[in-house]
Amino acid sequence: MNTLNKALVAMAVQAALISSPLLAQEQQAQKEAQALEKIQVTAQKRTQSIQEVPISIAALSGERFDAIFSAGDDVQALANRIPGLYAESSNGRVAPRFYIRGLGNSDFDLAASQPVSIIMDDVVMENVILKSFPLFDVQRVEVIRGPQGSLFGRNTTAGIVKFDTAKPGQSFDAYVKGAGGSYGTLNLEGAVGNAINDEWSFRLSGLSQNRDDWISNAHTGEKDVMGGFHENAARLQLMYENNDFSALFNLHTRDLDGTASIFRANAVSKGSNKLNANYDRDTVSYDKGDNNFQKYRSHGASLKLEKGFDGFSLTSITAYDTADGRGKGDIDGGVAGTGPGFIPFDAVTEDRLEDLKQFTQELRIASEGTHGYDWQFGAFYFDSSFGVTSIDGLYGASTVYHDNYTWAIFGQGSYDLSDKLSLTGGLRYTYDEKDFRVGAQNVDGFCLIADFNGDGIMECQIQDYQDINVDDGQVSWELALNYNLTDDTSLFSRVASGFRAQTIQGRNVAFEGAPTTADAETITSFEVGMKSDLLDDTLRLNVAVFYYEIDDIQISAIGGEAQGNSLLNADKGVGKGFEVDLEFLATDNLTLTAGYGLSDTELQDADQTVAPCGSGQCTVVDRMVNGEALIDGNPFPQSPKQIFNFTARYAVPMGDDGEFFVFTDWAFQGETNLFLYDAVEFRTKDNFEGGLRIGYENFSHDYSVALFGRNITDEDNIKGAVDFNNNTVFVNEPRIVGVEFKMNFY
């Protein structure tokens, strides 16, 4: 080999040696670009991969989250978008009721307790008004299924919905988003964040959601006087970071002026659960309710302090929230004697939330930098108080007051038993105390219990309700195993207990009835599951199978011929089923997700009865005992037996720096009983909604523009009912079509 050939060979070898790592890096980068995003969650109060946590969790973020809220929907839009999660409300955009794996509480009162906890930026939002805080500048939503009694305490027997918003950082980051659509829908959202100096940074976020009134009142002849809303919210966050110490201050506010739920009289006929000719989406006939107005405000602040030490960290989270407001509704949905249909008497109610105050404090110490084991211990304190005034068109105004005090200590640890097997255990003791008292009764109203004074004038006889105090202390625990079958697949099993604290319901006082109480319910849950990232991280498949039993399950007997709102304890509630979450990067251009959840629930109490619908207007299927329906064997109320959701995104490049995309999302809700008793008229089945986005995204200038549609097939889905007067129902939002623009700045 001559000198020239030797030189060429040497150059070729050297080039190969240099290019091989570059080629490998390029191939690795291409592989990562074609892989699904790794999802980080904080379900166990520390940052972990969702695939490593031995709990059934689903997360929602990015385009899948943004698409759901493009038309300005409230938090209820999450219903059926994640297997096992459902939400509804008979109080408009406030007081949502959440259900996980079929377990929730259908009580509409502003003092209602729920077995699903809402955690917003590490702070529990206990009152139903606080649970409805608008969602904007959200980084991620986590739905943590099953009882979470170790780390999150009482009232988590069903699970947790956890919202984490975007946080301040040292780099400039901003976005602005605007959308306009049908019914005068106009939504504006934006955020800006940046460094103030080397230690301080900030993030300011805001939201304005607006829709014109579009429902007319045929009785008064008023056009377009209901259905709209104007909601504004803002959040300011300040972050201080210095070596091993950080402080995050969060200040948030919300102001809503809108419409309460729209009740539609006799919209289903006896013997049918289908909407009939009385139903007109654009028109109602009200003589009461002042067009069902709704006004609420809330404000809050939190301070999160974190300090790192050698081998552990200390965290303190202090929060204070307030809220007040009122809403009014023509509950019978029509006019007595006029209709639509037969309405035996008028029913109108106004509810006022007065001076809600909630204070929480959590202290937590957790391991840092340990290998093969992790631990954390903490303490929690909760204190809240508020009043609820119920104003009935007949009985007048009555006010009740609620106080709730809670403290807890907890601990959790994880230990690697081997390279593949890890064990997690947790323990918590919680003490909960509630006080209840009655204030003014039947002010400016007619009363059934009355006396005549010396002047011969009838006066209401004020009933002497005794103050109520209930308290309980419970231990909750969990034990879980996680086994790494391969590098891409893990198996987990978990057994956990939890409890929902005793509750007091005083709404019956407004109707000259006694307040009611329910003892604490306790749950034991079993689940096994698999989490896997397959096909070179292009297919994520997570599956969980569960079974749970609830002793002394709390139930709310609402409406019916008794026209009441009473708390009861049934002997037992049982739930079983499974969830499947799938995400698939089918091609470089097509991404698919799908989820399916089956929740088969059953009330078990051989003697428990409730009052069914009034005046025989519905077809009760249950066996009747002394005029009441026996509910043994019935599913939990508002518990969809099946939930299915599906999304697809297809994108094609346009030029060197953009793409055209089509995104669609669909959600299906299976058979659902609306009440504790079973009646033909109050079952829903096969409800579904779909969404569509068609748009263009430019990567160089970081903006997107899209046409969107929500409820694109304009489905009329029954979400709930009122049964004491006539077959009143309320339905989902109408089809909204519009255009959205978003631009990011860095």
From TrEMBL:
Alphabetized PROSITE patterns for the sequence: TONB_DEPENDENT_REC_3
Primary location recorded for the protein, binned into one broad class: membrane
Keyword Ion transport belongs to the record: yes
Signal peptide (residue range): 1-24
Keyword NAD: no
Domain TonB-dependent receptor-like beta-barrel: 262-711
Name assigned to this protein: TonB-dependent receptor
Protein's organism: Bowmanella denitrificans
Lineage of origin: Bacteria, Pseudomonadati, Pseudomonadota, Gammaproteobacteria, Alteromonadales
